[in-house]
Amino acid sequence: MTTAGPGLHDQVLDTLGLAITAGEYPPGSVIRTDEVAQRFDVSRTVVREVVRVLESMHLVESRRRVGVTVLAIEEWNVFDPRVIRWRLDGADRPRQLRSLTMLRSAIEPVAAGLAARNATAEQCAELTACALGMVSTSRGQQLPEYLRHDIAFHRVILTASGNEMFARLGDVVAEILTGRTHHQVMFDDPDPAAVTLHVEVAGAVREGDAERAERITREITVGALAELDVLAPDPSA
Amino acid sequence: MTTAGPGLHDQVLDTLGLAITAGEYPPGSVIRTDEVAQRFDVSRTVVREVVRVLESMHLVESRRRVGVTVLAIEEWNVFDPRVIRWRLDGADRPRQLRSLTMLRSAIEPVAAGLAARNATAEQCAELTACALGMVSTSRGQQLPEYLRHDIAFHRVILTASGNEMFARLGDVVAEILTGRTHHQVMFDDPDPAAVTLHVEVAGAVREGDAERAERITREITVGALAELDVLAPDPSA
DNA sequence: GAGATCTAAACGTCATACTTTTTCTTGCCG
DNA sequence: CGGCAAGAAAAAGTATGACGTTTAGATCTC
Q1: Burial class for B65, CB neighbours closer than 10 Å (0-12, 13-18, 19+)
Q2: What is the pTM of this model?
Q3: Which residues form a coiled coil (chains A, B) (predicted)?
Q4: Which position among A193, B57, B173, B205 has the lowest Cβ density within 10 Å, counted as fewest Cβ atoms?
């Protein structure tokens, strides 16, 4: 699943970005723009623009007389959605899923607490609707519908937090939840306890009980962390 | 404080990016590449590359026959370090500081817990050194030195967590701490209680006590949140 | 007036020439 | 023999002109 739209630029960018994040070019490797232009049969204009974007992601560094050098992962803008997508689509998927799940576990509880303080009436209503939707699709092989409500639920929480950086993580959570559904328990119905927790979070937010919203959300994310070893086994273990 | 290196590209990018994030071009505004080329007296080549980078940050969207359109903030890659820097340097600084501090408050305790599990002996030693450095510079108008140790301390925690996304937030924390020192209490010595907390975190990490490391770090970040209203008053209040 | 067609505006792509920086070589001098 | 300086070459950076492609909007037809 790639995000490349039409246009030479996106195609080349996507191919190169995926290759780099997948480790096909180890750090320190040198890429020359003319070579890339030849390889993809595009003009140098296109390649230059691609390199500029890769450079803005700190995936590579371009230096005169030397070429385009691939940087170490420590330099990468690992929060860039496209980098995340590439890593999820490539060999780095397990590690990326671990990182994202931890990130999510750290953020969501805090976001839920903020949401309890800041959510508008409309957002509360939407949240409740999502929770109810989860309940009503939690049995009888309706996983796709359940997933939809689940994703929507977490998106509302993150948005209602009022923090635009938290809100931006909605896609990340969606990706994790989707990955979980597709890789792990496609056959099982969701855990009823988890469904209940979501309903309770919606209630806590509606009542403005920040402390409770945060606590219960933490329970949800603890579950997500527990699933990690099934979804993305620790390579160091 | 801008990050633009030499080269036309960076200059134009920095100027445009700052202008957009500062709200000089409201969402929906249209920018035409030729105009920009004229205004900065550079070739279209340069402008195109700049636009491509801005596009990769989701600050703008380029459509044929219409021009380069500025997107709403909801679309921005607010995690991009350059976007963060621009917002910190522009009119959006208070709001950006709020968001970053909340982000930090959510992440750092979790990172400290992970660090307690994953830190190498070397990292433990470095952490202790930082904490001791903080103690020894915490009195007698040595704020610059204290700040240096403080930043290093938090960087080690984030790196030692083993999560490359957390590690990337080192710059963010550095920015917040620097801003705090320069805007708020330039004249006061640091709070002794805060210094003690850092020492305790170092100890907990060294002993591998994840729960304690997380709890005490949370105390530190609660303090950071409390300072928010002085540093970056809530506009909605 | 609704729909199809035409047009022009703006970005997208290409090719080429030239500039600038930086590395590496070469050769001089001590 | 070694170091330093001058120079050559390599690769990215910049500029320019031409042409392709998409698409909003005007025009034309029925």
Answers
A1: exposed
A2: 0.94
A3: none
A4: A193
d(CA A71, CA A77): 11
pLDDT, tens only, A99-145: 999 999 999 999 999 999 999 999 999 999 999 999 999 998 899 99
- Alpha helices (H) in A81-191, listed in sequence order: 81-89, 93-118, 121-136, 143-160, 164-167, 170-183
* Domain span including residue A21: 6-75
Q: Give the contacts of A185 (CB within 8 A, at least 6 positions apart).
A: none
CATH of the domain at A140: 1.20.120.530
Q: Which nucleotide is nearest to A35 (CA to C1')?
A: D11
For A10-25, what is each residue's pLDDT tens digit?
999 999 999 999 999 9
Question: CA-based diameter of chain B, in Å?
Answer: 63
Q: Please identify among residues 177-236 of chain B the ones whose CB lies closer than 8 Å to any CB of chain A.
A: none
| Residue A192 · residue A173 · CB < 8 Å | no
Calculate the CA A93 to chain-centre distance.
11
For residue A165, the chain B residues in CB contact (below 8 A) are 78-79, 99-100, 102-103
Q: Is residue B96 part of a domain?
A: yes
CA A70, C1' D22: Å apart? 35
Boundary of a domain, candidates B75, B94, B123: B75
Chain C bases near protein Cβ (<7 Å): 8-16, 20-23
CB-to-strand C under 7 Å, chain B 25-64: 31-34, 44-45, 48, 51, 62-64
pLDDT tens for residues B100-136? 999 999 999 999 999 999 999 999 999 999 999 999 9
State the average pLDDT over residues A218-233.
87
